[in-house]
Amino acid sequence: SSRQALEQARAAAEELEDLKATAKGLEEENGELRRQARHMHRGESQPFFCPEQNQRLLAEGQGLREQIQAQAARMADLEVSAGGGHGGHA
Questions:
Q1: Dihedral angle over CA of 18, 22, 28, 31, nearest 10
Q2: Which residues form a coiled coil (predicted)?
Q3: Is 5 left (phi over 0), alpha (psi -120 to 50) or beta?
Q4: Per the CB 3.0–4.6 Å rule, which of 11, 47, 63, 68 could disulfide with 40?
Q5: pLDDT digits over 7-45, tens only?
Q6: Which sequence spans correspond to the domains of the chain?
Q7: In whole angstroms, what is the distance from residue 78 CA to residue 5 CA?
């Protein structure tokens, strides 16, 4: 039972790291889009910035934040379970 909880915690930790890496990639892409938007606002003739793409990135980022929060909550529950269930949920 404790072994299973530890395996679940390890899997959850790996999933959380994957989500964080994906979120970081989206943040970098969003930063690049913001830089391109600043260039566009400075009067460059060819805009590189697509509002639809930025909206997609913002929505994906919000979804990833929610997934990371949910994953962190699951990890906290697994840590409680692995610790012998003290202070468990009713």
A1: -140
A2: 2-36
A3: alpha
A4: 47
A5: 888 888 898 888 888 888 888 888 888 887 777 766 655
A6: 1-46, 49-84
A7: 6
